[in-house]
Specification:
It is built from 4 helices and 2 strands; from the N terminus they run ββαααα. The protein is mainly alpha-helical.
Length: 102
């Protein structure tokens, strides 16, 4: 049993979460931002930048899965806020390498 079961705003399904998500209007994460993150993560994975930032292909795939889920699964990406907070540090590392500028 989940602590909170949040209604999926796009399809009426149920998204299970261990905590109540930040309302979309108060959310620091936007779909547009997460699309940029996905591009950065894909670049880092495909260009081997993951080695420079001391990650693994498996973790890169995990990050891509979380970001993809946040983009596609709900109308509120902050359901994934805790995971996205952790991925933000990886994004900063990718940006710092200056190898994934697009």
């Amino acid at each position: 049993m989940c602590v909170s079961c949040l209604k999926n705003q796009s399809g009426g399904g149920v998204v299970y979460s261990r905590r109540v998500a930040t309302p979309p209007e108060d959310c620091a994460y936007t779909i547009q931002l997460l699309e940029i993150w996905r591009t950065k993560l894909l670049c880092a994975k495909e260009q081997g930048v993951w080695v420079d930032i001391e990650e693994t292909p498996a973790r890169m795939n995990k990050y891509l899965g979380i970001v993809g889920s946040a983009i596609n699964s709900t109308g509120n990406p902050c359901i994934f806020e805790d995971d996205l907070d952790k991925i933000q540090d990886v994004i900063f590392k990718i940006i710092a390498t200056e190898k994934c500028q697009s």
